[in-house]
């Protein structure tokens, strides 16, 4: 069986292809000419590791899109089945390839509701997939609203060996926080404000909470926050932090590659996720696997619709709740406890092996 993974958002497709190869399956990932940084395999792994798994095509716009489809057709024909993620399911649908579609984010929460040809095609691609999966718990309302009755939840597989705990001495003298999520809380960067508000990260909730924390009489340790500058509001973050009086606490860094991120997971006392979408982001899953406590946002209802137990991530939907958690997280023994709980939860629900084994069994059943 030959499998092609496409639509490499956050390197999830690449990771799945890599895991499938570990299980002895002939699997590759298709990378377009415009995919870079967090969506390119070289950001995840060294070139000598990633290159053997990669196929590539030239992504073109306008009328030239037909040349891209022709190139993809030739590649798709070499495989028994395509596992398409995000908008690449449109290509698999148009080329009439056997495909499993996996919704990854805005494709399910935004695109299928667009009154555009692109939105119509995304909807059809999901409806006509041999099997449809969604990988965010907060996809459930969209799945229900669109009537995708065949859709099933697909937990993102995590490389629990690569993202594993590292022994470190407990520290009660300071707090190092790592906030690696894309920076997006305004809608100044888009004309489709109503559509995009569902996928904002709401980093401002954390920064406002941090402001309140340092001014609280219960704040007893100095804080430093590492923040990579990426995302649509990257130019707005410094003015916001200056206005809140917390600029001196923030160490802004350029976008970092995965090896640097893993190092930051291990160095950080707490990892900060996002505060708008009621689910665990990819950074949260990796950090939990590394045994780090994570502060973000989820709702119990959606989590329990996909898991038998709640994740141990600390959830906050307002600056005031962020303050409460930061006060608790000053205690190193509490952080160690939450870190161990997070690691066990990932091993039970996001370990790559059983997830990929189930997906490969699905492929075998469909052929």
Which labels suit this protein?
single chain, 367 residues, alpha/beta, six-stranded parallel β-sheet, 13 strands
- Low-pLDDT segments, ≥5 res: none
Terminal CA distance reads: 9 Å
Content of β-strand: 5-15%
What class, by secondary structure content? alpha/beta
Helix and strand pattern: EHEHHEHEHEHHEHEEHHEHEHEHEHEHHH
Major sheet: arrangement of strands: 3-2-1-4-5-6-7
Largest sheet: 7 strands, parallel
Q: How would you concisely characterize the structure shown here?
A:
With 367 residues, the protein is an alpha/beta fold. It contains 17 helices and 13 strands.
Task: Describe this protein's structure.
This protein is of the alpha/beta class. Helix content is 41%, strand content 15%. The protein has 17 helices and 13 strands. The protein has helices at 12-22, 41-44, 47-50, 65-76, 88-94, 106-109, 117-127, 140-146, 193-196, 203-214, 237-244, 258-267, 282-289, 300-304, 319-328, 332-349, 352-366, and strands at residues 2-6, 26-32, 54-57, 81-85, 99-103, 131-134, 152-153, 175-179, 223-228, 250-253, 270-272, 294-296, 314-315. A seven-stranded parallel β-sheet has the order 3-2-1-4-5-6-7, sandwiched between helices. Strand 11 (270-272), helix 13 and strand 12 form a beta-alpha-beta unit. Helix 13 packs across helix 16 (332-349). The longest helix is centred in the last third of the chain and has 18 residues, at 332-349. It is globular, with a radius of gyration of 21 Å. The relative contact order is 0.13.
């Amino acid at each position: 069986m030959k499998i092609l993974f496409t639509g490499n958002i956050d390197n999830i497709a690449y990771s799945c292809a890599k895991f499938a190869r570990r299980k002895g399956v002939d699997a590759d990932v298709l990378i377009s000419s415009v995919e870079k940084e967090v969506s390119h395999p070289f950001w995840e792994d060294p070139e000598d590791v990633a290159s053997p798994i990669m196929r590539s095509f030239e992504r073109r716009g306008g009328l030239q899109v037909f040349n891209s489809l022709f190139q993809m057709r030739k590649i798709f024909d070499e495989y028994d089945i395509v596992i398409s993620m995000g908008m690449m399911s449109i290509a698999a649908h148009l080329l009439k390839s056997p495909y499993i579609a996996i919704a990854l984010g805005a494709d399910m929460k935004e695109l299928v509701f667009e009154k555009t040809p692109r939105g119509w095609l995304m909807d059809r691609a999901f409806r006509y997939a041999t099997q449809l999966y969604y990988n965010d718990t907060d996809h459930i309302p969209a799945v229900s609203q669109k009537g995708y009755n065949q859709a099933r939840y697909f937990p993102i597989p995590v490389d629990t060996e690569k993202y594993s705990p590292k022994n470190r001495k407990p520290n009660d003298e300071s707090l190092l926080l790592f906030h690696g999520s894309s920076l997006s809380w305004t809608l100044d960067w888009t004309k489709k404000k109503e559509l995009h508000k569902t996928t904002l990260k709401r980093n401002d909730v954390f920064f406002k909470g941090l402001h309140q924390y340092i001014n609280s009489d219960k704040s007893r340790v100095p804080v430093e926050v590492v923040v990579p500058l990426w995302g649509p509001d990257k130019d707005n973050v410094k003015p916001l932090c200056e206005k809140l009086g917390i600029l001196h606490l923030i160490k802004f860094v350029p976008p970092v590659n995965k090896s640097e991120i893993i190092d930051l997971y291990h160095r950080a006392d707490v990892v900060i996720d996002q505060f708008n979408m009621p689910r665990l982001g990819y950074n949260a899953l990796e950090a939990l696997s590394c045994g780090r406590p994570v502060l973000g946002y989820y709702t119990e209802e959606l989590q329990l619709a996909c898991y038998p137990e709640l994740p141990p991530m600390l959830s906050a939907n307002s600056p005031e709740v962020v303050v409460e958690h930061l006060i608790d997280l000053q205690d190193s023994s509490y952080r160690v406890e939450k870190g161990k709980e997070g690691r066990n939860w990932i091993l039970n629900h996001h370990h790559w092996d059983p997830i990929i084994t189930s997906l490969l069994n699905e492929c075998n059943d469909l052929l």
